[in-house]
Each structure stands twice: as structure tokens, then as C-alpha cells.
Write a structure and sequence with these properties.
Blueprint lengths: L1 H19 L6 H8 L3 H7 L3 H8 L3 H4 L6 H17 L6 H8 L3 H5 L5 H12 L2 H6 L3 H4 L3 H13 L5 H13 L4 H23 L9 H21 L9 H14 L6
Helix pairs in contact: 1-2, 1-4, 6-7, 6-9, 6-13, 12-15, 12-16, 14-15, 15-16
């Protein structure tokens, strides 16, 4: 009975943290959703951190999607300004002018421009949706559906023109500011690849590196769409569904028939 209660608390906590973000999920929220008393949770765990460690998803602590309206407004303004002016030519004053807020108000949420840029990349790169996919393995009937969902999440980044601008900045400014490329790699590419690679592992043979495989799959989709969006090809425009379906076929079966 005790093991069942603890397992239920873990399951509910993970679902809530993925949905609301670590910072915005309280022990009371977990207790309410799990239909147990707060005191029951503290019988098993000393703190919310303790629950996260038991879940084995410390990465979720790094991704906080605050429900604070003002913070979201700052992120939206930063996305517009960074997307228009680039990282190096943007300063905090530009963002205060965009949002009509004082510098002091912004510094209540972000220590400096770098931290704001990091948060803008992290919170607009669909990482929340990717972490929601941790439940997909149990819910989908096939590896094809699993890969379709992953592909659609990544391609949804390109549905917002501002995010396309942000991708241009990351690509364009990395040669002069390597820390931007490193930031994007560690905060988005590496974390997403490792998490999705764990989900893919049960579906591939032991000879295959699941993390490398998923990076090749995602890379093939992104590189194609980035080129298509940045160098528009009006006569060769492909829909997202077609891009993903063909990428999955190549990923699973290759393009050269075996004898």
C-alpha cells in the first residue's frame, strides 16, 4: 500500500511539473492531484527537490514556465527585440522601450542580458512540449507515431516568424559569439536529444546509439526546414507532414533497397 501511494505521488508530481513548471508546482498541488494529505507526502519526501530526485528528472528543474504575466511579457518583448536586432546589438534599454517597463523591473526577473537571452531561447524553443513527450512512449502504438510527434514539436518552432528570426541570430552570430551556439546546443539540442534518446532506446537494437540517432533524425528535419525558410523556395515548398513522413521512412529503412 505504501509503495502504491509513493508511486502515485511520483507520477502525479512529474505530470504537474511537466505541465506547470517546477517553480509553479507546489507540494499542495501535488497532494491535491494525488488525493492525499500534504503530510502524507512529507512521510516519503523531505522537500519538492527530494521528489524530483526520486523521479530522476532533475532536468525539469532547469525549465520553469512561470505563470507570472509580467515575466512572460518580458520574454515576448525580448523575443521581438533579439529577433530584430540580434544579440550583440541589443541592450536592456531596447527591451524596456519595447515593453514600456523600467530596467529595475526587468532585473527583478533576470540578472543581465545573457540570462534573459538564455531564458528566451529555452522558453520559446518548445522544450516544454518536448518534456511532455516523456509520456508518449507508453501512449503511442508505434515508433512511427512517436517520431511523428517529435518531428511536429520541433517543426512548430518555425510557425512563429519571430522564432525563425531567433534561429537566424543563433546561426549568424555564433561565429563571432561562440557562447551563443554553445548555449543553444546545451540548453536545447543536448537536453532534448538525451531525453528523447532515452525514450527511443527500447525501440532500437543495442548496436545503435539512440542519442546520436535522434540527433540525426531531428537534424535532417531542421536543416531542411531552416534552408527552406531562410532561402524561400516557392516552387519547392513542402508541408510539414510530408517532410516528417519522408524523414521517418529514411530514418527507419534508408533509401537504398537491400538485396
Amino acid at each position: 500500500m505504501k509503495n502504491n501511494t509513493k508511486a502515485k505521488i511520483k507520477k502525479v508530481a512529474e505530470e504537474l511539473i511537466i505541465k506547470k513548471g517546477y517553480r509553479d508546482t507546489t507540494v499542495q498541488d501535488i497532494a491535491t492531484s494525488a488525493k492525499v494529505a500534504v503530510g502524507t507526502i512529507y512521510r516519503y519526501y523531505k522537500s519538492k527537490d527530494d521528489i524530483l530526485m526520486d523521479i530522476g528528472r532533475l532536468d525539469l528543474k532547469d525549465v520553469s514556465y512561470s505563470q507570472d504575466i509580467r515575466r512572460k511579457e518580458i520574454i515576448e518583448a525580448a523575443l521581438n527585440v533579439f529577433g530584430t536586432k540580434g544579440y550583440s546589438r541589443t541592450n536592456i534599454e531596447d527591451i524596456t522601450n519595447e515593453i514600456g517597463m523600467s530596467k529595475g523591473a526587468i532585473y527583478q526577473y533576470f540578472k543581465n542580458k545573457e540570462e534573459l537571452f538564455i531564458s528566451t531561447i529555452r522558453e520559446t524553443s518548445q522544450m516544454q512540449l518536448l518534456f511532455k513527450l516523456t509520456k508518449l512512449e507508453q501512449e503511442t502504438a508505434s515508433i512511427e507515431e512517436f517520431l511523428v510527434e517529435i518531428g511536429m514539436v520541433f517543426l512548430s518552432v518555425f510557425e512563429d516568424p519571430r522564432k525563425i528570426k531567433l534561429m537566424r541570430i543563433i546561426i549568424g552570430e555564433t561565429p563571432n559569439f561562440p557562447e551563443i551556439g554553445e548555449l543553444f546546443y546545451h540548453e536545447v539540442v543536448e537536453k532534448a536529444s538525451e531525453q528523447i534518446g532515452k525514450m527511443l532506446k527500447p525501440h532500437v537494437s543495442s548496436e545503435i546509439d539512440p542519442v546520436l540517432s535522434i540527433r540525426l533524425f531531428i537534424g535532417s528535419i531542421w536543416s531542411f526546414v531552416i534552408f527552406q525558410e531562410m532561402v524561400p523556395m516557392k516552387d519547392r515548398k513542402y508541408e510539414n507532414e510530408a517532410i516528417i513522413q519522408h524523414a521517418i521512412r529514411v530514418f527507419q529503412h534508408g533509401i537504398i533497397p537491400t538485396a
